[in-house]
């Protein structure tokens, strides 16, 4: 319980700075995320975080804590969220919900995802199919990112892509429909790439045919 209190006390002291993350310089963003990750690691090194920042100033920011699907750390995850403070501008979540709205993505109004030092918006992510296994009904895909050369050396890149896919498709659909994901930098042949929010429609069309 002591470690839980230490984390939330630190978060309360710094919550306004974290909420204003998107307005900071890239250097300051990395510093803020570094210390948030450090404080969370003092409690449990196997937990990760995601911040979803609101489009409007009067909406709540979200701090989502995840155990990355590892059931061994679900208890620590739940205990942490159950003991979260009540803050007017924050909502604390213990699992990834199906929250993304397709119409907002299309209109370029989707929220940025901030996981540790990375900030990515869903409308910046595109994909191309590689191979579809008819027997298992699973697909291999390449996911393209504008700044892949910058992000490619960080271990958190796979996590942020996984989180975005979970928000778009739901965790069950990921395991049922995707076999393999390869990451790459967005090419000049941008007209050939498919918006990630169209993935479900693409799969449905394959199954029908």
Structural write-up:
By secondary structure, the chain is α+β, with helices and mostly antiparallel strands. It is built from 8 helices and 9 strands. It has a 5-stranded mixed β-sheet, with helices on both faces. The protein has a 4-stranded mixed β-sheet with strand order 8-7-6-9. α1 runs antiparallel to α2 and α6 crosses α7. The longest helix has 18 residues. It is globular. 24% of the residues are buried. About 3% of the residues have low confidence.
Report mean pLDDT, rounded to a whole number.
78
SSE-based structural type: alpha+beta
Compressed to H and E, one letter per element, the order equals HHEEHEHEEEEHHHEEH
- Rounded radius of gyration (Å): 18 Å
Spatial separation of the terminal alpha carbons: 55 Å
Main beta-sheet annotation: 5 strands, mixed
Beta strands, count: 9
Spatial shape: globular
Give a summary of the structure in a few sentences.
This protein has 8 helices and 9 strands. It is an alpha+beta fold and 209 residues long. About 3% of the residues have low confidence.
Spell out the key features of this protein.
5-stranded mixed beta sheet, alpha+beta, 209 residues, globular
List the helices and strands and how they pair.
Blueprint: H1 2-19, H2 26-43, E1 48-52, E2 61-66, H3 74-82, E3 90-93, H4 102-106, E4 113-115, E5 118-120, E6 126-133, E7 138-145, H5 148-151, H6 157-169, H7 171-177, E8 178-185, E9 194-195, H8 199-208
Parallel strand pairs: 2-3, 7-8
Antiparallel strand pairs: 1-2, 1-4, 4-5, 6-7, 6-9
